[in-house]
Amino acid sequence: MLRRIVALKRVIYDAVGHFNYDDGWSMASHLAISALMALFPFLIFATTLASFLGAQAFAETAVHLVFDTWPEQIAEPIAHEVVNVLTVQRGDLLTYGAILGAFFASNGIEALRTSLNRAYRVVENRSLIWRRLQSLVFVLIATFSFLAISVLLVLAPIIERLLDQNFVWIRPYLGTITIWRYIIASVVIVVGLVAVHFWLPAGKRRLTEIVPGLIFTLVGWLIGSTVFATYLDNFSSYVTTYAGLASIMIAIVFLYIVSAIFILGGELNAAISRFLEARARVPS
Fold first, then answer.
1. For residues 15 and 268, is the Cβ–Cβ distance under 8 A?
2. What residue ranges do the domains of the chain occupy?
């Protein structure tokens, strides 16, 4: 038991120490701003593509998928404005706006890559063109995933009604569409975290090597967002301090917290790998 406590202490000290050494706080700021700058272009690009494919109700679904995992105090004002932006009529798919939207959205992917390369302490040796193409592929995959999920959510009430009519025993387990939105949004986050840890940073990792960081990120996201939401409810003076910019400032601070937790998750994975490698070199 004592050995496990000592090992845990070493791993935590190593992760936090490297987080500070790797300019983790500055990288969290960079990642937060990049995420905010990538969010709107991504949603605009995704909505434009969805409209081109005939999915007119995509905007509302995409906003729910993105913001359902945010605290309500942070998500509600921004989500309302995002819906207003996305429901403005636009031209065909191949417009300069859609192309630029995809490009700026890929910048957010590149920020994730840089953060994880630092956390895992790996040197990036892939070409700039290859990395940028990979980031654009991530954006396209995310777009089509959101599109597929939006179709499923449209069909969910129909499926739920059919199940209710034909399988009486399943009635107590059938939730509302809101519950399904939360479940799907959570699954999207988990799958997204696995994908970025697996494929964005240089080098190769096994699933078991990234699971601790994923769990830390998810638990940290839940705790951090809850604490920040409580602070906004009881102690915040953002509205009086920043006036009309309050919602944006709140979003930036929230994304900064989430970004720091995300980078620490990568640092934790790297620290555990270093500890296991060092222990393996010690003769038994």
1. yes
2. 9-281
Which residues have a Cβ under 8 Å from the Cβ of 139 and sit 6 or more positions away? Answer: 42, 45, 102, 105, 106, 109
242 Cβ contact partners less than 8 Å away, ≥ 6 residues apart = 248, 249
Nearby residues of 215 by Cβ (< 8 Å), 6 or more positions away: none
| CA quadruple 79, 85, 87, 89: dihedral, nearest 10 | -170
Cα gap 194→123, rounded to integer Å: 20
Residue 69 has pLDDT above 60, yes or no: yes
Mean pLDDT of the chain: 78
Element (H, E) at 26: helix 24-52
**Helices in 68-176 by DSSP H: which ranges?**
72-86, 96-120, 128-166
State the pLDDT at residue 6.
81
Question: Considering only CA atoms, which of 142, 53, 52 is closest in space to residue 105?
Answer: 142
pLDDT at 241: 61
- Burial of residue 274 (number of CB atoms within 10 Å: 0-12, 13-18, 19+): middle
Q: Which residues contact 161 (CB under 8 A, 6 or more apart)?
A: none
Q: How many CB atoms lie within 10 A of CB 253?
A: 17
Q: Supply the pLDDT for residue 268.
A: 95
Residue type at position 23: D
Which of 16-20, 211-215, 237-241 is predicted least confidently? 237-241
- 106 vs 41, more confident: 106
- CA-nearest of 281, 256, 276 to 205 is 276
pLDDT band per the 50, 70, 90 thresholds, residue 178? low
> Is the pLDDT reported for residue 57 higher than 90?
no
Q: Is the pLDDT of residue 225 over 90?
A: no
What separation in angstroms does the CA of 35 have from each of 38, 155, 170? 5, 30, 40
